[in-house]
Write a structure and sequence with these properties.
Chain lengths: 504, 153, 324
């Protein structure tokens, strides 16, 4: 245990702690601003870290990673603009709870859940890294395909509003992801001869467009309206002991789900939070609250998405395989210092590895401290006049979309999707499934086709390989069981003389 | 027909056009060599599915009884002004003729100012916010981090 | 009056002559059509630092990542003003794209500045499938065509290397499967999803060896040969394909291009600065740590080299396209 301990002790150097603080704070601030993401901050910081010591660079970047993942929950909760894709699920319940006059509680739950999620992932990281990574390599394309299909069924089952509109939104999102390079062949398709579409549409402009810009346009219809939230209650920020006891199962489960999803390279926080959220909804005693300010929902989503950060570090440390997009940037930072992560990273740069792990833990705790103490101030964002807030947010959205690739096209895409998101929201088409469909479709399609390449066209492994079959079974069950239960409940209430208002 | 239904049908209509365009394009995609599907089937199937669902949604909307339902927000002059300003901002930015910091400061000043009708007591705040956000972001994202923004200094 | 006019004209002429002789007068943009952190990006940033730290040029170099498909950033560079202030870093994928018809422009639409660094590929198999040498691989593949799964990024370098090697070594038929780059292929090999792939030298060293140079007992890999002119010093027991009797090398380098019409001074100035940067200690160390050969080709040598690569890649790309 000695190397781990000494790693923690090394962290208590004032300069290092300073780096962690700066990293977490800047990550939180950037993650919170709609249009900017933690991942962007990290990739823009990369050239700057070239001039730092490798250890310092890694500590800073990991802290930013942790901060960025948590920062997104702030605007997701207060403005219904997720700071990053992993916070989409938080808008489902965080925003309604905040809007009902309890933004402090909503934020506080998210913050604590994020911290617990991160710490549980850290425990896994410190204990079973090597065996888990090997296990993860056994996950083949068919398993990925089934997992993603299951996630898509889950998000459709959880979306607000009519099922038809939810499915339209989800499948439309999938469709939008297809123009561009077909990942299974490397050839472009469906670009309608617009060469700028050769690379396809990127997630950030679509996400920011649909959620942030769309929300901005919706909110702009209410300029000057009174009746905005003028008071932001901040009691209930800290979870009481009984709160924690009640949510223990939720937090543990969601964190473990998030950790495992994080380990799988190529799928990340958004899937983790979907799985955790819908699992919790199906196990909850108050499922009808989900989507209307359920505390469990916020906890599940945020615990899982922070756990994926820790989970993603596992294959990175064990085998040099990036568990997420940000991990690839971390690898790049290391390579700039002539350190190439591989299976022997523990041996060649053990102190760096333990430093990374320890920094992750300290950053998670620092994040909790920083955010909890600023909640009072942060919650006041909701009371700012929209006329000031919205134009400023627009500037950041433009900046974020442009900074992605230094191409104006992305800005126009963002604005275009802003209009689409506004119209969809106005017509009561749910936005969450749309963006999730956009994220998941390429994975599902390319994995299925890779699998078919391996088996020369035989799709049966989807149902014969154990994990894959399990995911498909769960997906089918989730498609059939809730409507069945609802139907039975409806029958019962009809017998008792109740009438349900027509749902939409 | 109320505003909600108009929006729903309008959006479904747009989506249907898009689906038809996709299905049209997929017809010219080659079949797969390394695997039986190729680039076409997935998009075509999904586009077809969405098409059917949209027709269903339109039918449901037309026959639905919306009495007692809250109407969506009506369009306002302020909203149009705001959206117009955003589009102008984006357009001027795309020509790369104006320094980003200056452009943003002006955008914020005139937009917030316009929305607040340049009220005396708010002017100092508007100026401060415009300058801080406009010049601040320009500084951070060109001097410290590197984004290819148009600059004059 | 006449005199004033002449002097005015002279001054006008002097200022109108493009101050190219003073290139560079403003910062230089180096477009990298790949994401931050990847191999190309690192090379670009190393060049940037190498030049800037030693003041080989009086103006800074800005590395601009244009992500998405590499053709987008490349096209941006191709269409940029040819004033000597925009450059592109690209590699063989550009030729692959042109050869397969995926993109409508190519290497001949640019001025060629330099080719930097070089590494050659290594075909590698899983060590538990009973194949112990390259010739056994060829035998097995010919006996059971399309039974061996080759992990690649379809359309990209490792795919083309597989086809090129296959064409030159008796045409064994592999089944190509879309997996990704070397890291993804390493994961797939470890997880027993595929049988073989090709990787660069530095990746093989990273995944296969211990820090002291001995083979990692946990490694699932078995490198079979080196597709370069001479053996790699870190892998002394690995034969080259030439030694095994096959007349083929497959080596990859990073190319710096500029828009067509860029003034000679800018092209040559940049090439000279890059060459000097690669000689610095920092860059030499970086090359060594990644097992990339520290070679810079410019001018006529570069033209001949690029033509040679095109002669190999064009037919390979066509085969790859036909297979789709």
């Amino acid at each position: 245990m000695l190397p781990e301990l000494s790693a923690f002790i090394t962290l208590f150097d004032p300069w290092v702690l300073c780096l962690i603080l700066m990293g977490v704070t800047s990550g939180v601030v950037v993650g919170a601003i709609p249009g900017l993401t933690g991942a962007m901050l990290i990739s823009l910081m990369l050239p700057v870290t070239f001039f730092m010591q490798p250890y310092d660079a890694i500590v800073l970047l990991v802290s930013m990673y942790v901060g960025g993942t948590s920062g997104g929950l702030v605007t997701a909760t207060l403005l219904r603009m997720p700071g990053s894709p992993s916070n989409i699920l938080t808008t489902f319940d965080g925003y309604p709870l905040a809007k009902s006059g309890r933004p402090g509680r909503a934020l506080g739950l998210g913050i604590t859940a994020s911290c617990v999620g991160g710490l549980i992932a850290a425990v896994v990281l410190f204990t079973v890294t090597k065996p888990l990574s090997i296990l993860a390599t056994l996950f083949g394309p068919f398993e990925y395909f089934s997992l993603v299909i299951m996630a898509m069924v889950l998000i459709a089952s959880v979306s607000q509003g009519s099922l038809v509109k939810g499915l339209i939104a989800g499948f439309l999102g999938m469709l939008i992801s297809m123009p561009g390079v077909d990942p299974s062949t490397g050839m472009t398709r469906l670009t309608f001869d617009v060469w700028r579409l050769d690379g396809g549409l990127k997630l950030l402009p679509v996400l920011v467009g649909v959620f942030a810009v769309g929300q901005i346009i919706s909110d702009s219809l209410r300029f000057g309206e009174r009746g905005q939230v003028t008071e932001a209650k901040t009691e209930g920020i800290l979870m009481s002991f009984s709160d924690l006891k009640k949510s223990a199962g939720n937090m543990l489960r969601s964190s473990l789900i998030g950790t495992w999803v994080g380990i799988l390279p190529g799928i990340g926080a958004s899937i983790g939070s979907i799985l955790a959220y819908t699992t919790q909804k199906n196990l909850s005693k108050e499922p009808e609250k989900f989507g209307h300010g359920s505390e469990e929902g916020i906890i599940a989503s945020e615990a899982a998405n922070n756990a994926t950060v820790g989970g993603a570090l596992i294959p990175l440390i064990a085998m040099g395989i990036p568990g997420s997009v940000v991990d690839a940037i971390l690898i790049a930072a290391l390579m700039m210092h002539s350190i190439s992560p591989g299976p022997t990273l523990f041996v060649t740069n053990g102190d760096l590895v333990y430093g990374m792990m320890a920094a992750y833990v300290v950053a998670t705790i620092a994040m909790w401290v920083i955010l909890t103490f600023s909640v009072r101030w942060i919650a006041r964002i909701m009371t700012l006049p929209m006329t000031f807030l919205l134009p400023v947010v627009v500037v950041f959205c433009m900046l974020g979309a442009f900074a992605l690739s230094n191409v104006m096209f992305d800005v126009w895409v963002m604005l275009g999707f802003g209009i689409l998101g506004f119209l969809m929201d106005r017509g009561k088409f749910p936005l969450g499934p749309f963006v999730i469909g956009f994220i998941l479709a390429p994975i599902a399609e390319s994995k299925l086709r890779t699998g078919l390449m391996m088996t020369a066209g035989d799709p049966s492994p989807v149902l014969t390989r154990p994990f894959s079959a399990a995911f498909i079974v769960v997906a089918i069950l989730l498609l059939i069981v809730p409507p069945l239960l609802a139907w039975r409940r409806a029958r019962k209430s009809v017998e008792l003389g109740d009438f349900d208002a027509g749902g939409d | 027909m109320n505003a909600l239904k108009r929006t729903e049908i309008g959006v479904c209509g747009l989506i249907i056009v898009f689906c038809l365009a996709i299905i049209w394009e997929t017809r010219s995609l080659p079949p797969g060599h390394f695997e039986p599907l190729g680039s076409g089937p997935f998009p075509m199937a999904i586009a077809g599915l969405v098409f059917v669902l949209c027709i269903a949604a339109i039918v449901i909307a037309v026959f639905r009884d919306d009495t007692g339902r809250e109407a969506p927000d009506r369009a306002t002059r302020s909203a149009f002004f705001f959206v117009a300003m955003v589009l102008i901002y984006a357009a001027v930015f795309s020509f790369r003729a104006v320094d980003f910091g200056i452009l943003t400061t002006f955008f914020l000043f005139f937009t917030i100012g316009g929305l607040e009708r340049f009220q005396r007591k708010l002017l100092p705040w508007i100026v401060v916010v415009s300058l801080v956000v406009g010049m601040g972001t320009s500084l951070v994202f060109t001097r410290f981090l590197y984004v290819d923004l148009p600059t004059w200094f | 009056m006449f005199r004033t006019a002449i002097s005015a004209l002279a001054i006008l002429a002097a200022t109108a002559i493009p101050a190219i002789a003073d290139w560079p007068e403003k910062p230089i943009k180096l477009i990298v059509p790949f994401g931050a952190g990847g191999g190309s990006d690192q090379m670009a940033r190393n060049i940037q630092v190498g030049i800037q730290e030693n003041d080989y040029l009086p103006q800074p170099i800005n590395v601009v990542n244009v992500t998405g498909h590499f053709s987008i950033g490349s096209r941006q560079a191709k269409d940029a003003k040819a004033d000597g202030y925009t450059f592109l870093q690209i590699h063989m994928a550009l030729m692959g794209g042109e050869g397969s018809g995926a993109i409508d422009f190519g290497w001949r639409d640019f001025e060629h500045v330099a080719a930097v660094g070089e590494f050659c590929v290594i075909p590698v198999v899983r060590n538990d499938i009973g194949i112990k040498s390259y010739s056994e691989l060829v035998e097995k593949a010919k006996a059971e065509p399309k039974s061996l799964l080759f992990g690649a990024n379809l359309g990209a370098i490792n795919h083309m290397s597989g086809i090129a090697l296959s064409e030159a070594t008796g045409k064994p038929e592999f089944r190509y499967v879309q997996i990704g780059g070397s890291t993804a292929n390493f994961t797939a090999l470890t997880g027993k999803q595929i049988h073989l792939s090709t990787m660069g030298v530095s990746e093989i060293l990273k995944f296969h060896l211990m820090p002291d140079g001995s083979v990692n007992p946990d490694s699932p890999l078995l490198p079979l040969a080196y597709a370069g002119p001479e053996r790699v010093s870190a892998l002394p027991d690995l034969p080259t394909l030439r030694e095994l009797g096959y007349e083929i090398d497959f080596c990859v380098s990073n190319w710096i291009f500029a828009p067509k019409g860029t003034p000679r001074e800018a092209v040559e100035g940049m090439a000279a600065a890059i060459e000097k940067a690669t000689q610095t200690e920092k860059m030499s160390e970086w090359f060594a740590s990644r097992n990339v050969n520290n070679i810079v080709r410019t001018g006529d040598e570069l033209e001949a080299y690029l033509t040679g690569v095109w002669e190999v890649i064009e037919p390979v790309a066509k085969i790859a396209a036909a297979q789709k």
